[in-house]
């Protein structure tokens, strides 16, 4: 986690974020000057950003929106005020409508990003100035502090590169908050192939099996938002265990980038868990990131305690081997 401090100064109407990176200034600067890299960490995990316009010069602007798990969008704009390459840049950050026009009654922040070389790499200090205490409090109430920490927690993989950052790490689980967990797995295959493996029942039956000795008995997949997919597993003869299944309602689909579902065990009145899967491709590697949202910490711990992550790694390893031995096109 690169964020080392977040300072709220109500007297001077500022919010300051300090982050340290084990990379040179030139590398960190490139991540902030390239919209394709920036959008991979600008929004928090369940609200990733998409930059639709990028004019990186004084007087230019950038348009972006946050993408919610049900397809909702929140629009914003940067107006570039000052740019000193590999030293700093300053923007006016404002909420807008879908056309980029300022949203009435919403605060405007002047943000200065300053980059400084350190013995360990780079320190970036972001200072946001507000016109009033009310504007600062509005942004704080919107969850900007926690959202910033969650968003910046994604930047290390961008700076290092997917191939290097995830090499040999298998399936990784990170507890983000009491209710949010992030599971990541990198596979050396194009995103289009991984997308097919997530949506094609013929392929799903070949890898989404968990431990050896289990078979998938039900595999009904929908690509229609509002409808549900159904999955079921049963132990092979001689293997201990009870059959079980999941029903996943499709909340949002953006092919071939993102699938959001709300799932629960079949026939159980238990909790619903939101699974937000995104696919990111870089240098021949696709990163599968699943952000799981639980209703509370107790449910989170109960489900994680079932060995879910180990089962996911067994399935992903099987998929990886399948793609190596029988390439999917």
UniProtKB/TrEMBL annotation:
Residues 23-159, 189-323 form the Activator of Hsp90 ATPase homologue 1/2-like C-terminal domain. Pfam families: AHSA1. SUPFAM superfamilies: Bet v1-like. It comes from the Bacteria. InterPro entries: ASHA1/2-like_C, START-like_dom_sf. Belongs to the AHA1 family. This is Activator of Hsp90 ATPase homologue 1/2-like C-terminal domain-containing protein. It comes from Acidipropionibacterium virtanenii.
